[in-house]
Design a protein that fits this description.
The chain is of the alpha/beta class. The protein has nine helices and five strands. It has a five-stranded mixed β-sheet, with helices on both faces. The longest helix has 24 residues.
């Protein structure tokens, strides 16, 4: 169920614009406030914080639902799974990200550890939502192998060389956002933001390097 705009005095289009600016680009809340003010929209940065917390999850859910409804959008041919360290109040946490062979982010999961139990949580969540792929590319972290043996799919794992560059490159947009937000203070906030950010990133991913200018402009206009 989508949140209601009933008690908000601003136009829903303005709210959507503010949320997209904040999530899609490496901007702070105050920078989004300044950009909107230049366009004649006077809102406080705390109002923008309220907007993205309230409407961001519903926007991401709509995008996810629409994309999953088209099976071709989510190929089961090959998944790339990787993890990076993220600091929350000085403590290291792990952000696991899975992308398909086209670079579409399938899921992002935050855990405190990166052991077998954490890897099992990530893989089970992926397969429950998308089914079983033909292969899963990972690095040589032993947690992946242990988790896949427990699930009976160790034959799907592929490692070595530069096979997992696609997953490692998918972390770059998040790293730019992390710097703009000056890190995170709660694990729940990190999980919430990465889930929303990944869907917005997918929505505007026009694969510029694979298409000519006219095709890319059509994709961007559609998004």
């Amino acid at each position: 169920m989508n949140p209601s705009f009933k008690y908000f005095k601003h136009n829903p289009t303005i709210i959507h614009l503010a949320v997209l600016l904040y999530i899609r680009y490496p901007l702070s809340l105050r920078q989004v406030e300044d950009i909107l003010f230049e366009r004649g929209i006077d809102v406080c940065h705390e109002t923008i914080r309220l907007w993205w917390n309230k409407f961001g999850p519903s926007m991401a859910a709509q995008i996810r639902k629409k994309r999953i409804s088209y099976p071709k959008q989510y190929s089961r041919w090959r998944w790339h799974v990787d993890e990076v360290f993220v600091k929350i109040n000085g403590e290291l946490h792990n952000l696991w990200r899975a992308v398909d062979h086209e670079g579409e982010v399938l899921d992002a999961v935050v855990t405190r550890k990166r052991d077998r139990k954490a890897a099992l949580k990530v893989l089970k969540r992926l397969m429950k939502r998308y089914g079983r792929p033909h292969s899963i590319v990972t690095d040589k972290l032993r947690s992946y192998g242990a988790a896949m043996r427990e699930m009976g799919c160790q034959s799907l794992q592929k490692t070595g060389g530069r096979l997992n560059n696609r997953a490692e490159n998918s972390h770059l947009p998040f790293r730019r956002r992390e710097r703009a937000m000056q890190n995170f203070r709660k694990e729940a906030t990190l999980q919430k933001f990465t889930s929303i950010h990944s869907q917005i990133y997918n929505h505007f991913n026009g694969e510029r390097h694979l298409n000519n200018r006219d095709t890319f402009k059509k994709f961007r206009s559609g998004a």
